[in-house]
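The records we work with from here on pair a chain with its fold. Taken together, the tokens spell out the fold as the letters spell out the chain. To see the layout at work, look at the sequence and tokens printed below.
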Amino acid sequence: MDAQEDLAGGVHSIDFENGDVLIKQSGIYLIIACPQIGKVRGTTPRWIDFWVRLNNVDVPNSNIRAVVMDPQEKTVVPLNSVLPLNRGDTLNIMMAVETLGEGLGIEAIEPDGEPTIPSIIVTLVQLD
């Protein structure tokens, strides 16, 4: 996530530190997280969940679930929420998978002759 922040320039009301999104300015925020998901092996349908955690507390009703069946399957799972955030808050996008043995999770893809498809794209927009 640091790479995108550095490319944007200007004044940021957020910062990134070890996977945490740190809020530097209080306000109402639109949060959009789009993880690129897939799995390495197995053909049994398996679920993967993503949700928002704020200050180490899971945000109610923020969870979404996708099911991946085939290792060739790739998809993006859009997660969005509008939350009041305060200066000093820590925001995280969390993930859980049904089973660990099939390599189910987020992945970056590097197609030949094209830009990298990042494992997750996170957009935060201050609305007020």
User: Anything to note?
Assistant: The two ends are 23 Å apart (CA to CA). The first helix runs from residue 2 to 8. The CA atoms of residues 53 and 59 lie 5 Å apart.
